[in-house]
From TrEMBL:
Protein name (database record): 2,4-diaminobutyrate 4-transaminase
InterPro entries given in the database record: Aminotrans_3, Aminotrans_3_PPA_site, Dat, PyrdxlP-dep_Trfase, PyrdxlP-dep_Trfase_major, PyrdxlP-dep_Trfase_small
Record-linked SUPFAM superfamilies: PLP-dependent transferases (SSF53383)
Transmembrane segments: none
Family: Belongs to the class-III pyridoxal-phosphate-dependent aminotransferase family.
This protein's record includes keyword Transferase: yes
Pfam families the record matches: Aminotran_3
Keywords from the UniProt entry: Aminotransferase, Plasmid, Pyridoxal phosphate, Transferase
GO MF terms, alphabetically ordered: pyridoxal phosphate binding; transaminase activity
NCBIfam families reported for this sequence: dat (TIGR00709), PRK06938.1 (NF005393)
Length: 456
């Protein structure tokens, strides 16, 4: 094939013929990207799109940010080592300095760092191994709706049972606790009573010798469940979880792989609750768009022997350089505060869209990590009076947004939530454009459903 003249359809057909059935995004976002800058990607056919997926939240500064590109060019021009295993370099030490500048002093004053293989899921694997080594215990406490990666131990933590059904033999040493998903509270409670009941449940599991849960090695949480549908944890609940894990000597792991580095309106999602976890997993944005994953943890947990956790590509120097510039740009430009403001602006517009139909059930999230859950008004309401999730409608909305030049992801229960993860540098005008494109797409999808019902 002459790739210089190939169309998107030709490239997608070749991809489908050669790549595995596990590929995901091309099934719903059928484009072949040619160029990208900031929030915009352009496909090989010349079509432009606002990218509100942004590498699943990886591109904090958008595509090809000039400061990041310049830094990578400098590293290459200076003849710096690109791959060093875990041998240190000036680039690596600058990266750690800047990462620690982003984290609370209460953590970094006694922190150690473990560089992992470059995917976030390996940081989770390392964190689990760390706390198990430190405590001598095996069980891990996770939460319903959680997502922590697709490798073995990380996959066992997933709240969605679908991907795990065909994989017998996954770790059984995981106990899934109820997450305070206020819109669909696992206890059928409303408002603050949802998180209060969830916290009481966790407390009883830890206190009750008949709970069936032996002494846990650790607890892992997301301050906003991303793949779970952009579900934010109430700050009082997070404070209760920190209190309970402190009282029971259970190391608390904050999975900040998607929420970290300003996305939620704070540098790290756990900071909304003014807590300090024992372990933090970071990836995605801290690599500046390149693969990098790190675990930061309290030195009291550092019971590892040399080589206890390794990985060939943990020495990705180009990613460390790109990540340092990205973190510094976020800090120097208060992009966490900007994300909070732009997230509020986008959320207000999404609420306007929700008002047009009962089929738009919930608008939620934090900062620039937002979700819109679609529901089926013809279905049977649940205990809280909410209609069941409608993944088919969410898929049609996603298709409508794509046709209008907007890329969004879907996730959550039944894939019924449209998710927004735009770069943190999004401008007010771009937020308004994104909201308008989404509004038109939702209206078009709902109008098509109503016409179909009339014809039926």
């Amino acid at each position: 094939m002459n790739y210089a003249d190939a169309t998107a359809d030709q490239l997608l057909a070749q991809q489908a013929a050669r790549e595995s059935s596990a590929r995901t995004y091309p099934r719903y976002l059928p484009l072949a990207i040619e160029t990208a800058s900031g929030l915009t990607v352009v496909d090989v056919d010349g079509n432009e799109y606002y990218d509100c997926l942004a590498g699943a939240g990886t591109l904090a500064l958008g595509h090809n940010h000039p400061a990041v590109v310049e830094e990578m060019e400098r590293v290459l021009a200076d003849g710096r080592a690109i791959h060093t295993l875990d041998i240190t370099t000036p680039e690596k030490e600058r990266f750690v300095d800047t990462l620690f500048d982003c984290l609370p002093d209460e953590l970094t004053d006694t922190a150690k760092v473990q560089f992992c293989s470059p995917a976030g899921t390996d940081a989770v694997e390392a964190a689990l191994k760390l706390v198990r080594t430190a405590t001598g215990n095996r069980p891990i406490l996770g939460f319903q709706g959680g997502y922590h990666g697709m490798t073995g131990e990380a996959l066992s933590l997933m709240g969605n049972t679908g991907p795990k059904e065909s994989l017998p033999g996954l770790s059984s040493a995981v106990h899934h606790l109820p997450y305070p998903y206020t819109y669909r509270c696992p206890f059928g409670a409303g408002g603050d009573e949802c998180w209060r009941t969830s916290a009481r449940y966790v407390e009883r599991v830890l206190d009750d010798p008949a709970s069936g849960v032996v002494s846990p090695a650790g607890m892992i949480f997301e301050s906003v469940q991303g793949e779970g549908g952009s579900v934010p944890a109430p700050a009082p609940w997070l404070r209760e979880i920190r209190r309970l894990t402190d009282e029971h000597d259970v190391p608390l792991i904050a999975d900040e792989i998607q929420t970290g580095l300003g996305r939620t309106g704070e540098l790290f999602g756990f900071e909304h609750a003014d807590i300090v976890p024992d372990v933090v997993t970071v990836s995605k944005a801290v690599g500046g768009g390149l693969p990098l994953a790190v675990v930061v943890y309290d030195e009291e947990l550092d019971g590892w022997e040399p080589g206890a956790h390794a990985g060939t590509f943990r020495g990705n120097q180009l990613a460390m350089a790109a990540g340092t510039v990205t973190m510094r740009h976020v800090l120097d430009n208060d992009l966490d505060a900007h994300a909070a403001a732009m997230g509020e602006r986008l959320r207000e517009r999404l609420e306007d869209t929700a008002a047009i139909s009962e089929a738009v059930g919930d608008v939620r999230g934090r900062g620039l990590m937002l979700g819109v859950e679609f529901v089926d008004p013809a279905g049977e309401p649940g205990p809280q009076g909410h209609y069941p999730p409608d993944g088919d409608l969410a898929e049609r909305v996603q298709a409508e947004t794509f046709d209008r030049g907007l890329i969004v992801e879907t996730g959550g229960r039944d894939g019924a939530t449209a998710r927004f993860l735009p770069p943190l540098v999004v401008s007010p005008r771009q937020v308004d454009d994104i909201a308008e494109l989404f509004h038109r797409s939702v209206r078009a999808a709902i109008d098509a459903d109503e016409r179909a019902e009339v014809l039926a």
